[in-house]
Every structure is written in C-alpha cells, then in structure tokens.
Amino acid sequence: MTDTKQETERKYDAPSPDTTAWLPDLTGVGGIVSVVDQGTETLDAVYYDTDDLRLAGSSAALRRRTGGSDAGWHLKLPLSGDSREEVTAPLSDGPPDSLRELALSRTRGADVRPVVRIRTTRGVRRLVGSGNAVLAELSIDAVRAESLRAPGTLASWTEMEVELAPDTDPVLLDLVDKTLRKSGVDRSHAPSKFARALAETMAGAPRLPDRRAGETVAPGSAGEAVLGHVEGLIGTLVNLDPAVRRDVPDSVHRMRVACRRLRSVLRSYRSVLDRAVTDPVRGELKWLGDELGAERDQEVLRERLRTRIDALPAELLFGPVAARLQVWDLNNSSEARRRTLDALNSPRYLALLDSLAALTEQPPLRGKADRKPEKVMAKAVLKEYDRLAGRVSHGLELPPGPERDTALHNARKAAKKTRYATEPARDALGKPAKRLGKRVKALQKVLGDHQDSVVARDALRRMTLAAHAAGEPSFVWGLLYGQEWADADRRERELPTVWADATRRDPRKTLN
Q: pTM of the entire structure?
C-alpha cells in the first residue's frame, strides 16, 4: 500500500545547529503570527540506487527512513520548481515492489542497492498563521552522511529547510526567502541531501550524458537545438511513467503525446540524427503510443458520449441508456487499462527506455548537426508542411464518405507532425515558426474533431446493434449518430476556410 503527497520546500545553508542567533525573526512575514518550537527528532535514512546512480541522475531518490513521524519507504520524484512528489510505503526489509515499479522508468530494471546512509538531528519549528493554522515547517538539520560503497567515508554539514503546508500559498516561500537572504542565509547549492552526500562522501556523482564518444555538440548548432528538445521529451516520458501507473488523471494522454512528439521530431530531423539508429526507436515509440492509445481513446469517447446524452431532454431517453453506456465503458475501459499496464511492465518497454537513454548519451549525430540551425531546421519544417499541404488538398478533392474520412485523418496526422517540427525550431526561426505552429494547431483541431466524430459513429453503430439484439429501444443511439454525422459535416465545410487561414502567409517565404 502506498500514499502520496506533494512537498514544496527550499533548502538553505545553515551556519550552525548549536545556536539560532543567525536565524531572523520571521514573525510578521507573509502572515506568520508565531514561530513555535516543536523540539528535536532523530532521523536515520539509507538511500538506494543503481550501480550507475540512475535515480540520482534523474533527480529522484529512494530511501528507507526510521525516526520522525513518517518512518517508512519514501520515493521522491521531481516536479516543477520547488516541488517534489513523495510516494510512501510502510517499513519493510527491502524496497517494496510498488515503489520499484514507480521508479522503473528511471532504473530501467537495474537492481537498487544501499549507497549512502544519512543520519539527521532535526530541530523543528512551525510557522503559524492566524487561527493557529500551520503555514510551513522550518527545520534545522545537523547532517552526517556515510558512503556505503566506501565505508568510513564521512561528511557532515548543517542545512535548513522551509517546507510549505499543503494549502499554503507558495508566495510565502518567496517572502521568507527574501527575509533569510537579507540576514545572510543563502540557498543551498545542493538540490537534496542525497545529492550532497553522494558528492561529499565521493560515493559517486549522478551519471550525466556524455554525448557521442566523448564529442561535444557544437554550441548554437542544429544538433544542440534538436538534441536538447529530444532530451526534454524523453525526460517528460520518463517523468510521466509513475503517474500513468497510478492512474493520475490526464497522465495517459500526456505520455501518449510525448511519444508522438518524440517520434515526430526523430522523423523530421533525420538530417541531424541518423535514421539507422532513430527509426527502430520510432517504431517502438509507435508501439507504446498504440498501447497507451486504447485507454486514452476510451476516455475521450466516454466523455463525448456522456456529454451528448446529458444534453438530451429527458423525454427522449428511451430505454436503459445510462446502463448500456456504463456496461460498454466498463468492458472497454478494463481491457484498455490492462493493455497500458502490461506494456509498462514488459521487457519491450524496458528495452525502449534503454534505447532512449543511449540516444541521449551517445547521440547518432550526422554531419548537418554541426551546421547553423536556421537552414537545417527550416528545411525540415517545410518538408513536413509540403506533406501536409498535399494531404489536405487530396482530402478536399474527395466526396464525403469513408475514403474522405481516412484522407482527412491522414491530414490530421500530417498537421501534428508539422506542428511538432516547429517546436525545436522556434528559437532559431523565431516568430514565423511560432505562427505556423499556431495556425497548424487550429487546423489540427478541426481535423481532430472530425476524426472524433468518425470514431464516435462507429461506437454508436455497435451500441445500436447491441441494444437491438437485447430488445432495447435504439432510438437514442440513432439520434446521437445523427448528431455526430452533422458535426462531421460542419467540420468538413469549415475546413477550407481554416486551411486558407493556415496558408495565408506562405511558410516557404517566411521561414527562409
């Protein structure tokens, strides 16, 4: 059993734990009414990592801690800014399987072993506001770290943490920070106790990408722009893995989009990254996206149909409509969820993660990677745009029907690829790339709405048949089918205008 919370905190270098004369009075700062001493506690934590420190290298930490009010196993995962997510599990001898799974996208299946022991004597103070509401907790920690790789290698230091209570406005951190800095209390350069312990006990430093065979990517080059974007997308995918496993809302969608973006960029910038290496990776990303897609598509379709049913007058709801929809959703959702989890727990997924790590550690750079980004990236964007133009023109030439539906779906995919190709190019190409991306996104939305209607009609047809076979009225399903048909027709009539707007400024002239 696991529990999770978000913690938002900042760390500071503290002169000494023996006296607090250096600590300014925080009363009156950001609504703090009083500072209440909570006494001292002793914490003992053993941190686990892979032999090459993959958790530390991705700003994560896995520890077994005793003492204090939250003894147990803790997996800390990075969020944005000063925040981290902490997933906890009860004490046990070894790392719980539940936390191993949540760390899998970082460890990539490698064993974790004890690497550092950190013992902390912590003095706790609560920063209390009006009505005795606890706004934050201030801790002064005397820290002793020992390497478990090289026993006897020790380090010690004093630091201070200010951690917000769950419902406190983050602005308080800035106000406290300003007061501390005025008193000469500076922010810590180490992101965590774990990272500092690794550095100061020489247990090892987080492994960093070493680029291709020791070579560096030329600053300001096309290779730097593309590779930086690729690394960011891989990081997004890795970070979303634990959220998908825990079924966090919208996480499946975001991970699937990360797969699509990464696939698209690897395809669009084959002149920078060798396709002999990236094409197999793209194939595996497609597999993962398809597995995630079953769950995401079910989510979208369920909400679409529920919204339509809720909008109908009660007098038109003949038969067990809600029950029929619920049975359909349960049958499809459980299967889709199983596919997602099976994919994330498969050897194939671990192999993909290894391939993505290799892609950043030893990027398969081609000759054009060293060139200035403007021409290289403009050419890649225009190639995708030309493909989009051809597909839209083809779709508009066809009469309404299944063939046109397929052609417009292909145009939608081309619109996504064009938009994704503009993303790593925006710094180099500036406003024209941003403007093209924005206009293509509007086109993509119209095409996406059209495709959603195509998918919904297919589901409604199957529900109509199921209702008929069960002897239920099928009126509602036919009515919704007609609404979807009308929506698709509106999108098809809207498409020429949206396409004309997207091409109002010829990218061939603005990007070159």
A: 0.89
